[in-house]
Every structure is written in C-alpha cells, then in structure tokens.
Amino acid sequence: MLSIKGFTKRILLLGAVLTMTSCAKEKVNWFDKSFFNGENNIDSAGFFTQKEETYYIYYYSLFCNLCTQMKGDISTFIENSEYKVYTLGAQNLSEEEFTKFKKVKENFTKDDIAEMNKEMIGVSDIKEVYLIGTPMLFKISEAKINEVYSGAAAVHSYIEKYL
Questions:
Q1: Quick one: pLDDT at residue 5?
Q2: How high is the pLDDT of residue 7?
Q3: 46: phi then psi, degrees, rounded to nearest 5
Q4: Domain CATH number, residue 60
Q5: Is 101 inside any structural domain?
Q6: Cis upstream peptide for 135 (omega within 30°)
Q7: 134 neighbors 67 (Cβ within 8 angstroms)
Q8: Helix (H, G, I), strand (E, B) or coil at 34
Q9: Which of 69, 127, 128, 154 could form a disulfide with 149 if both were Cys (CB 3.0 to 4.6 A apart)?
C-alpha cells in the first residue's frame, strides 16, 4: 500500500513533468545572436551615443507576451535592416536608469500615445524620451529621434518590409 508521503511525492513529480512538457513548446530562446550578445544590447547612456549616424533601438521586455510573439520577426528585422539595431531590455534598466526617461502620462489613451510619439520626434535628450510600453522601435538619426513606433501593431507594420 502506498503511503501518503509516497503518494504526495508522486503527485508532485507528475505535476513537475507535466509543467515542463507543456511549457517546452512555448519556450523562446532570447539568448541568441539577436539579443543579449553584449554588442547590440544598450542601456540608457547608449540611447543617443552610438557610433553609427543612423540606427534603431528596439525596446522590449522578456515579460511581454507580444514581445515574445514578435521575437522571430524582430530577429529577422535585425538581420535584414540596412541600419544597426540595438536592443534595450526593460528588465535590464535599473530604477535609477528608468527614471532618467520622461514620465509617461497616467491612464493614457491611443491619442495620448500618438501625442507622446509626436513629442519625441527631434529630441536628443533622454529626459525627453517616453518609454510608453513594450514593444517600441526608435529610429535615431544624427543623435535625434527620427521615428517612433509604439506597440506591437505599429512596430510590426514598420518592420514587415524587412521580413
């Protein structure tokens, strides 16, 4: 006869096995050449200081479902873009770094997002950059924001020509 302790161990083991197998298909490898390779990953200090005259910054989070869904397309964009693409991971920003950016309006609407995007065009100071949410794509030219795409739909619509 199986003891309560033995039964509990088997249930826990079964649960662990089921969890690992069900999540295995959902697993995304963020640790490839496109992300966290040291070369493309930047922090707030690198936002406007890259050596290229024109480049992109892709702002994302490991905890963003839409970012996870877009990872393959973003990797293709990074490979096919005519300009270098740097990555800025939300999870890599310290609270001190995060507060260097301009504070986002509370309870913002789509109209507010459009307005914040418009406000960022032409800025060259991190204090004037909104991190509205993930994902976002910034195009930097001559150390100024030239274009901004906020949200998965806008980012994907822009990068589609590179896929």
A1: 53
A2: 45
A3: -90, 5
A4: 3.40.30.10
A5: yes
A6: yes
A7: yes
A8: coil
A9: 154
